[in-house]
Amino acid sequence: MKLKSLLVIILSVAMLGLADNAEAQRKNKYKARKKTNRKVSHYKGGIRGYGRFEPYLFVGAQVNAGNYFGDLAPVNKAASTDVSFTRPGFGLSGGYKFHHSLAITADINWVRIFGDDFTSDPGTEDGFPRYARNLSFRNDIKEFRLALQIFLFPNHGGPNQRLPFNAYLSLGGTVFHHEPKGKVPEFDHQAGGTDSTTPAPQAGEWVKLRPLGTEGQNLGIVEPYKSIAFSLPVALGAQIRLPNTQLNAGIELGIRYLFTDYIDDVSTEYVSLQTLEDNDGVLARIMSDRGSVPVSSKGEARDITNLRILNNHNQGHSYYIEGNVGTGIDGSRRGNPDDNDMFFVTQLKLSYVLGSTTRKRAKYR
Q1: CA angle, 240 as apex, 236 and 243 as ends, to 5°?
Q2: Is the per-residue pLDDT at 318 higher than 80?
Q3: Is the predicted pLDDT of residue 351 greater than 80, yes or no?
Q4: I need a surface site. Which of 40, 53, 128, 352 has the fewest CB within 10 A?
């Protein structure tokens, strides 16, 4: 009997001990799970040592394609242009990615733009006055742009953990230098008509139009425009990471909204050609009004069937359009001062990422 009671006591103590041990294990598991959940809630993503974003620098170069829209576009519609206007250029760039979704960039670009009334359709109501006007220009733009890139996908980690693909919106500001030029016709057709053989000064050369004051800038009629101007650049871009390299390749499509209407040297009204000649010379007169020239800037023959050419520039005009008197006459419309010019830049870009996230392993003692 005593032995049975002793066994009962021993078994009871053992069961109590096992219960306490099980409760202790349960509490330890709960603590471990809570600690794990806390770590997960603070997890930043990526491999240990690489999850936190690390800023980095990059440098690069780009090939540019410039395209113009303004008073000498084929038609008067927003963003209307002509593929034949496209001209090449190049540039250098650099930047600093300071946030997983943001980078600041700076680049220097050279872009040539071109426009010619000859590309307008003389068979349309809107295109005929432009075709008759026969103005043309080219302009070499040298710009400095500072912009903020806003990326579509955030990129945690450092330069070696760049995403294989990303897209971005670029916003910023640009200061640029420009100097519109026009090609001087071979002959002075204002003085001698379409069949003139009177040589024009500097025939065949591309001359600077701004110093000539083609709309009366040197006469105080309109405010002279400057060779330094500003623009608001807006662009959309996409880039890919070249595998196993520090290189990114991309494409960017951008618009430059300009704070000038004289990137093509055309904005307001014609002025008296004789007054221009008296004050600024024969070349200013010739380059202000090229409607009587029977060829385009490239030497292509123009259709002048519907044009009535007047040879007396002393009256202040060289020609007018049958049934639409006004083009080329002193005080008549030469451009549209209500809307500033703009141009487009397409860039093929290649950049090199500076820096690396590779770290040395800790030394064990």
Answers
A1: 170
A2: no
A3: yes
A4: 40
The answer to whether residue 307 is domain-embedded is yes
Q: What Rg, from alpha-carbon coordinates, does the chain have?
A: 36
H/E run at residue 148: strand 136-151
Per the domain annotation, does 344 fall within a domain? yes
Q: For residue 135, what are the domain limits? A: 56-353
Are the beta carbons of 55 and 95 closer than 8 angstroms? no
Q: What integer pLDDT is reported at residue 150 of this predicted model? A: 98
Q: Which residue has the tokens 């500097």?
A: 202
Q: Which of 4-18, 24-38, 53-67, 287-301 has the lowest mean pLDDT?
A: 4-18
What whole-number distance in Å separates Cα of residue 252 and Cα of residue 260?
24
What is the C-alpha to C-alpha distance for residues 57 and 66, in angstroms, rounded to an integer?
27
Q: Give the CATH number of the domain where residue 344 resides.
A: 2.40.160.20
More reliable by pLDDT, 14 or 216: 216
The string of DSSP letters for 16-32 reads HHHHHHHHHHHHHHHHH
Q: Report if residue 197 sits inside a domain.
A: yes
Is the predicted pLDDT of residue 324 greater than 70, yes or no? no
Contact 107, 145 (CB under 8 A): yes
Q: How many domains does the chain have?
A: 1
Instruction: Give domain status of residue 361, yes or no.
Output: no
With H, G, I as helix, E, B as strand and everything else as coil, classify residue 304.
coil
- Give me the count of residues in the chain: 365
| Cα angle 91, 92, 98; round to 5 | 135
> pLDDT digit string (tens) for 80-130?
666 778 888 999 999 999 999 999 999 999 999 999 999 988 888 788 888
CA distances from 181 to 30, 139, 140, 141, 175 (A): 80, 6, 9, 12, 20
Nearest Cα neighbor of 66 from 172, 142, 169, 134 is 142
